[in-house]
Design goal:
The protein is mostly beta strands. Helices cover 8% and strands 38% of the residues. It has 2 domains: 6-23 and 148-345, Glucose Permease (Domain IIA) (Distorted Sandwich); 73-143, no CATH class. It has helices spanning 6-10, 62-65, 327-345, and strands at 25-34, 40-43, 53-61, 67-71, 79-84, 90-100, 108-113, 117-123, 134-143, 155-157, 164-170, 188-191, 197-199, 204-210, 216-217, 228-232, 238-242, 256-257, 262-265, 270-271, 276-284, 289-291, 294-296, 308-311. Strands 11, 12, 14, 16, 17, 18, 21, 22 and 24 form a 9-stranded antiparallel β-sheet that branches. Strands 2-1-3 form a 3-stranded antiparallel β-sheet. A 3-stranded antiparallel β-sheet has the order 4-5-8. It binds zinc ion (ZN). Residues 18, 170, 177-178, 184, 187, 189, 278 line the site of zinc ion.
């Protein structure tokens, strides 16, 4: 089963593809129930067990929730403050596009806002206190602290899954959904059954998680609905693990994780044509979230579509992982999917 020609493997490329946009979306659960007085309550907190409730899903953009700019001053003396709820830094560029009667020397400014935290950006003032004033601004947010230089060599990392052997379905510059998207150009898609343990490729700090998306499909409307874990590494790079199964993420933002630790379980959420992991190491370079070339430990060459990756790491090493109940089933499914892929080759 392990030996296959690269030409045949190349045909596997078509099977599982996905698109991850910049990840600036956020999902939350909303619970609707009646309190003891019969009044409707809408809350993000689950009611007590004996209360009937309906659950809805809220989707808001991350730009409005996890990183935001607000006026902490007054209408006449605005103080623009950036609030970053992510557990890692972001770079913010504020553009004052239009202004009248304001003391502004520089209409474009940049800051690095550590997370979670706040940073005062600007105290805005009228030039002539007796005349009215106005301003219009917009903001660009890039995840991560900027790299001064891109690494010269590909980053060496561990495999992002445990206990199985899976085929790369799309690799660097994959034409289906990686090419043309700087944050995904050096991403790999690895075809794997749902509920495969996803593990950290390096030590780091969990910067962000999305756990609550459940929809998926081959349609742009799902492009921002992948469940993810983002881990910040010591060298300012970030690993993105995407399309994870809802409610299986085993780590929290701010948590320190070590290489090989279970982060969650694979799934098929978001813009995806089948169960797989979309994985990329990214960095903020030139005010853009860009993916970086990687090599998996034990595989000296660049990851290629059709290549088989084998992890000997035992499943469920860290007991804190919220492991789905069907681990046994998962190992059977691995064979099924490989068999199916082989069938499609003929
Ligand atoms: Zn992908």
């Amino acid at each position: 089963m392990a030996v296959r020609s690269s030409i045949r493997n190349a045909k596997l490329l078509l099977l599982i593809i996905s698109l991850i946009l910049s990840g600036l979306t956020h999902a939350a659960k909303l619970y609707k129930y009646k309190d003891e007085n019969g009044r409707w309550v809408f809350s993000d907190q689950k009611p007590q067990e004996n209360v009937d409730y309906e659950q809805e899903r809220l989707v808001v953009t991350e730009a409005q929730s996890k990183v935001s700019i607000s006026n902490h001053g007054t209408k006449l003396r605005p103080i623009l403050v950036a609030v970053n709820q992510l557990h890692g830094p972001v770079e913010i560029v504020l553009h004052i596009d239009q202004h009248t009667n304001m003391k502004i020397s520089d209409t474009k400014r940049r800051w690095i806002v550590p997370g979670p935290g706040e940073k005062t950006l600007l105290y805005l003032e009228r030039d002539d206190p007796y005349r009215s004033f106005g301003y219009r601004w917009r903001v660009d947010v890039t995840l991560g602290e900027p790299l001064e230089m891109k690494p010269i060599k590909p980053l060496k990392i561990g495999l992002p899954f445990a206990g199985g052997e899976f085929v790369i379905s799309q690799a660097f510059f994959g034409v289906y959904s990686h090419k043309g998207h700087p944050e995904s150009e050096y991403a790999v898609d690895i075809a794997m059954p749902r509920n495969t343990p996803i593990v950290a490729v390096r030590d780091g700090i969990v910067m962000d998680t999305e756990n609550d998306f459940s929809r998926s499909g081959w349609d742009m409307q799902y492009a921002d609905e992948a469940n993810i874990v983002r881990v910040l590494h010591g060298d300012k790079t970030m690993a993105l693990y995407a399309h994870l199964e809802p409610d299986t993420i085993a780590v929290r933002p701010g948590e320190r994780v070590s290489q090989g630790q279970t982060l969650g379980f694979s799934g098929n959420t978001g813009f995806s044509s089948g169960p797989h992991l979309h994985f990329a190491v990214q960095a903020n370079y030139g005010l853009k979230l860009q993916s970086l070339p990687i090599r998996f430990e034990g595989y000296p060459k660049e990851p290629k579509a059709g290549q088989l990756l084998v992890s000997n790491r035992p499943v469920g090493v860290n007991s804190s992982a919220n492991k789905p109940t069907s681990t046994k089933q998962t190992s059977n499914k691995i064979n099924t999917i490989v068999e199916k892929l082989l069938e499609l080759l003929n």
